[in-house]
């Protein structure tokens, strides 16, 4: 399964266009524009599984940096400050990585 099986390619493209400039990425806005915030729990778990590149059950900081590229290979890499802000916003237990439940909570809040 790919992200375009769950999210509309045009919504993904619009979300990526919205954050093309460095330091313009807002997770909440990205989730809304891409349509992720409207997905149910099982769809969000599948999106998380796709984004968890090493299939560790977590999205670590080094994977988070390439978050946009998981949606489109030519997309930019998140800046260090965007990555740290994204991680801090989702990592509720302070373990330095985002679990599936933390991801789902962030997308749906």
UniProtKB/TrEMBL annotation:
<keyword id="KW-0479">Metal-binding</keyword>
<keyword id="KW-0677">Repeat</keyword>
<feature type="binding site">
    <location>
        <position position="97"/>
    </location>
    <ligand>
        <name>Ca(2+) 2</name>
    </ligand>
</feature>
<feature type="binding site">
    <location>
        <position position="102"/>
    </location>
    <ligand>
        <name>Ca(2+) 2</name>
    </ligand>
</feature>
<feature type="binding site">
    <location>
        <position position="63"/>
    </location>
    <ligand>
        <name>Ca(2+) 1</name>
    </ligand>
</feature>
<dbReference type="InterPro" id="IPR008080">
    <property type="entry name" value="Parvalbumin"/>
</dbReference>
<protein>
    <recommendedName>
        <fullName>Parvalbumin</fullName>
    </recommendedName>
</protein>
<feature type="binding site">
    <location>
        <position position="56"/>
    </location>
    <ligand>
        <name>Ca(2+) 1</name>
    </ligand>
</feature>
<feature type="binding site">
    <location>
        <position position="54"/>
    </location>
    <ligand>
        <name>Ca(2+) 1</name>
    </ligand>
</feature>
<feature type="domain" description="EF-hand">
    <location>
        <begin position="78"/>
        <end position="109"/>
    </location>
</feature>
<dbReference type="InterPro" id="IPR018247">
    <property type="entry name" value="EF_Hand_1_Ca_BS"/>
</dbReference>
<feature type="binding site">
    <location>
        <position position="93"/>
    </location>
    <ligand>
        <name>Ca(2+) 2</name>
    </ligand>
</feature>
<feature type="binding site">
    <location>
        <position position="52"/>
    </location>
    <ligand>
        <name>Ca(2+) 1</name>
    </ligand>
</feature>
<dbReference type="GO" id="GO:0005737">
    <property type="term" value="C:cytoplasm"/>
</dbReference>
<dbReference type="GO" id="GO:0005509">
    <property type="term" value="F:calcium ion binding"/>
</dbReference>
<comment type="function">
    <text>In muscle, parvalbumin is thought to be involved in relaxation after contraction. It binds two calcium ions.</text>
</comment>
<feature type="binding site">
    <location>
        <position position="95"/>
    </location>
    <ligand>
        <name>Ca(2+) 2</name>
    </ligand>
</feature>
<dbReference type="Pfam" id="PF13499">
    <property type="entry name" value="EF-hand_7"/>
</dbReference>
<comment type="similarity">
    <text>Belongs to the parvalbumin family.</text>
</comment>
<feature type="binding site">
    <location>
        <position position="91"/>
    </location>
    <ligand>
        <name>Ca(2+) 2</name>
    </ligand>
</feature>
<feature type="binding site">
    <location>
        <position position="58"/>
    </location>
    <ligand>
        <name>Ca(2+) 1</name>
    </ligand>
</feature>
<keyword id="KW-0106">Calcium</keyword>
<dbReference type="InterPro" id="IPR002048">
    <property type="entry name" value="EF_hand_dom"/>
</dbReference>
<dbReference type="InterPro" id="IPR011992">
    <property type="entry name" value="EF-hand-dom_pair"/>
</dbReference>
<feature type="domain" description="EF-hand">
    <location>
        <begin position="39"/>
        <end position="74"/>
    </location>
</feature>
């Amino acid at each position: 399964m790919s992200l375009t099986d769950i999210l509309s390619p045009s919504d993904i493209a619009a979300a990526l266009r919205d954050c093309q400039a460095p330091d313009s990425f807002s997770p909440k806005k990205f989730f809304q524009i891409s349509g992720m915030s409207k997905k149910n729990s099982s769809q969000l778990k599948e999106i998380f599984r796709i984004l968890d590149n090493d299939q560790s059950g977590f999205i670590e900081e080094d994977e988070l940096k390439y978050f946009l590229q998981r949606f489109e290979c030519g997309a930019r890499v998140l800046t260090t400050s965007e990555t740290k802000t994204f991680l801090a916003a989702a990592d509720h237990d302070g373990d330095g990585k985002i679990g599936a439940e933390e991801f789902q909570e962030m997308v749906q809040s």
